[in-house]
């Protein structure tokens, strides 16, 4: 079961990193498409993923985790074939939207399937293991992407196909099928709410990406930002009244869950901006190949899995809030190191590498810990829905991170690339420091060992009930 879930999570996470590395090559193959158009290869995927995650989580809680997971895996695999065969940017973006729908079905159900078969007192560790799978994909993604792009960027999608087929064949046999008594009578999710959320995020991203061309104070930019706000407000008001909203607002009144979800969203803004920015810097400013770019970026992501897997004792001693707070600050420190040292003639080992190591350490200390906090804050009946909400927040953060960076970079004049990137790095660091502020409510005084043992026993009884 773990092998099947791990394969699916690994594949969907790997896709993020290898597509980032392949983005410049995709642009060249389609006649030099601009960064604004290419950004939708990333953002179109993230928007649909974000809008459908909670819907998918609801459907999974209603219909069963196993069938929804396998359906998502099949859709993702078939859409990967469509991406590989796309004749132009528009077709590629369309195939990526379908791919995102498949990922939205498999991601929350993958964690739910794991938690379905894990004892309550071991669920925090299971969540960290689940998150570390994404970290392993992050570590291998840049190098794998560089190798695949050397053979042709379409291979970054073809590689998903054999993995998906093997996971489906194994999953049919080994995945558990726990009952969903009474769930079939629950109402359907709010699909119109999903459309409102998609419209709000897409309009916001479009306004940010086009602002350098339209002008930051132009009618188009200001009108788009206003429309995004109005759609967002409409979405929140609808969610407050709908019987099955995209976001269950009462869940956001659970303090630990709300703080962790907010911090995850803000941190992913920084993470997405860092990832795309480092790729664009290496290939656009330093002139690296896709493979050399992957090798240059890899040390940071490679730090994530060992940190994520070994962070448990530190969390037990100091508390999840302190660890996540330290992780977000370390990430910001890595970005600010780039502000101070990166230049057209700077040495990799003295400039990019130290910042990449600090950001990798920060990611390993932040993402799995906050994911564990959010999961532990909710009852078992809301595992899939809660996972979908936090994953949705991360995808919204990814859209904003890419859009903000693209909007800041624009098309810098010759000789002004370093200054443009410095402005982008400041924005990335600011997002990480805002995430640090969001973790502050999670910081608690260390508790005696006896009290912690009592909490574990109480959690076990609650999970059994």
UniProtKB/TrEMBL annotation:
Keywords: Antibiotic resistance, Membrane, Transmembrane, Transmembrane helix. It comes from the Bacteria. Residues 1-447 form the Major facilitator superfamily (MFS) profile domain. It is found in: Cell membrane. The chain crosses the membrane at residues 40-60, 67-87, 93-115, 127-149, 155-176, 188-208, 214-237, 257-280, 286-308, 320-340, 352-378, 398-419, 425-443. Gene3D superfamilies: MFS general substrate transporter like domains, Multidrug resistance protein D. InterPro entries: MFS (IPR011701), MFS_dom (IPR020846), MFS_trans_sf (IPR036259). It is a multi-pass membrane protein. Its main location: membrane. Pfam families: MFS_1. This is MFS transporter. It comes from Streptomyces gelaticus.
């Amino acid at each position: 079961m773990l092998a099947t879930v791990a394969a699916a999570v690994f594949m969907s996470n790997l896709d993020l990193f290898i597509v980032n590395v392949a983005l410049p090559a995709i642009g060249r193959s389609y006649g030099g498409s601009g960064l604004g158009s290419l950004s939708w290869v990333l953002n179109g995927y993230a928007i649909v993923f974000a809008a459908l995650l909670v819907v998918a989580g609801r459907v999974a809680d209603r219909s069963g985790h196993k069938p929804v997971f396998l359906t998502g895996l099949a859709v993702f695999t078939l859409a990967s074939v469509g991406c590989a065969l796309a004749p132009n940017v528009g077709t590629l973006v369309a195939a990526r939207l379908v791919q995102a729908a498949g990922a939205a079905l498999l991601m929350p159900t993958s964690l739910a399937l794991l938690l379905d078969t894990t004892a309550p007192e071991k669920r925090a560790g299971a969540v960290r293991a689940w998150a570390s799978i994404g970290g392993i994909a992050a570590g291998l993604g840049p190098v794998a992407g560089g190798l695949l792009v050397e053979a042709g960027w379409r291979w970054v999608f073809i590689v998903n196909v054999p993995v998906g087929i093997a996971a489906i064949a194994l999953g049919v046999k080994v995945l558990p099928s726990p009952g969903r008594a009474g769930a079939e009578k629950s109402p359907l999710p709010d699909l119109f709410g999903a459309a409102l959320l998609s419209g709000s995020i897409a309009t916001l991203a479009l306004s940010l990406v086009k602002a350098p061309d339209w002008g930051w104070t132009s009618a188009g930019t200001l009108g788009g930002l206003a429309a995004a706000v109005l759609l967002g407000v409409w979405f929140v008001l609808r969610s407050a009244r709908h019987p099955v909203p995209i976001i269950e607002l009462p869940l956001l009144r659970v303090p630990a869950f709300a703080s962790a979800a907010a911090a995850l969203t803000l941190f992913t803004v920084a993470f997405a901006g860092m990832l795309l920015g480092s790729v664009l810097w290496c290939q656009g400013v330093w002139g690296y190949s896709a493979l050399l770019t992957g090798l240059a970026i890899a040390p940071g992501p490679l730090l994530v899995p060992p940190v994520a897997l070994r962070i448990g004792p530190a969390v037990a001693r100091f508390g999840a809030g302190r660890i996540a707070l330290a992780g977000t600050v370390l990430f910001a420190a890595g970005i600010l190191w780039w502000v101070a040292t990166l230049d057209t003639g700077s040495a990799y080992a003295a400039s990019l590498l130290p910042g990449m190591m600090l950001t990798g350490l920060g990611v390993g200390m932040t993402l799995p810990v906050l994911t564990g906090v959010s999961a532990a804050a909710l009852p078992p009946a809301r595992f899939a829905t809660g996972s979908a909400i936090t994953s949705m927040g991360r995808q919204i953060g990814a859209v904003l991170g890419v859009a903000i960076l693209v909007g800041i970079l624009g098309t810098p004049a010759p000789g002004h690339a370093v200054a443009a990137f410095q402005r982008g790095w400041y924005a990335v660091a600011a997002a990480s420091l805002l995430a640090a502020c969001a973790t502050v409510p999670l910081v608690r005084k260390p508790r005696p060992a006896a009290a912690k043992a009592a909490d574990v026993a109480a959690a076990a009884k609650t999970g059994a009930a």
